[in-house]
Amino acid sequence: MGAALRKNDSSSHKLPFSKLEAKMVEAMRHRAARGSTMKSFNSIIMKFPKIDESFRNCKAIFEQFDEDSNGAIDLEELKHCFDKLQVDFTDEEIGEIFKACDMDENMGIKFNEFIVLICLVYLLKEPTTVHANSRLDLPELEATFQTLVDAFVFLDKNKDGHVSKSEMVTALNESSSGGRSSGRIAMRRFHEMDWDKNGMVTFKEFLFAFTRWLGIGGADEDGE
Ligand SMILES: [Ca+2]
Ligand SMILES: [Ca+2]
Ligand SMILES: [Ca+2]
């Protein structure tokens, strides 16, 4: 009876792309169309100290929204956080971004996951039209988020919203030194970023890699 139809759904679970993830790729493509101010991979590395500083300044914001101070932001706390920041996501969208950023799936957003989450919200909320108040109310962080978006756009040569291995190699070869070792470094960096090992780096994976490179951990960061 229904046997003939079965063939079609074999691929249905192949791309676990939520609506939100599709939206992120779309937002990134949109942003990429405007180009990047980054000229080389080195110019990204030069920004590391500044990024590090503003990420760490995020800690106070994180603690403010971790209402029960258990080291993680749960779904309810995130809803309060979005209310406060005037992020007008639906409950479904909040649930999706929560799940997307809860990388270790322990049902709480830890500090490093929170940084990624807020940066993704920033990307999604970036005004594509001239609606005045569609930005996050975190002016001191916006410059850093902008830098990170810019860095990703620099790496994403074909502007499809993902960074592939060959794009990573191209980006590193554009840097001043070049040479044999840069290919190996590119591969190492790429594998560090490609969390789910699918051969593509999303903006989310890129951001997580940054928090790891900067040594920003989760709740256990200060633990002995
Ligand atoms: Ca909490
Ligand atoms: Ca690409
Ligand atoms: Ca990946």
UniProtKB/TrEMBL annotation:
It holds the Pfam family EF-hand_7. SMART domains: EFh. Coiled coil: none annotated. One of its GO terms (molecular function) is calcium ion binding. InterPro entries: CML21-like, EF-hand-dom_pair, EF_Hand_1_Ca_BS, EF_hand_dom. Residues 53-88, 89-124, 143-178, 181-216 form the EF-hand domain. Keywords: Calcium. This is Putative calcium-binding protein CML21. It comes from Apostasia shenzhenica.
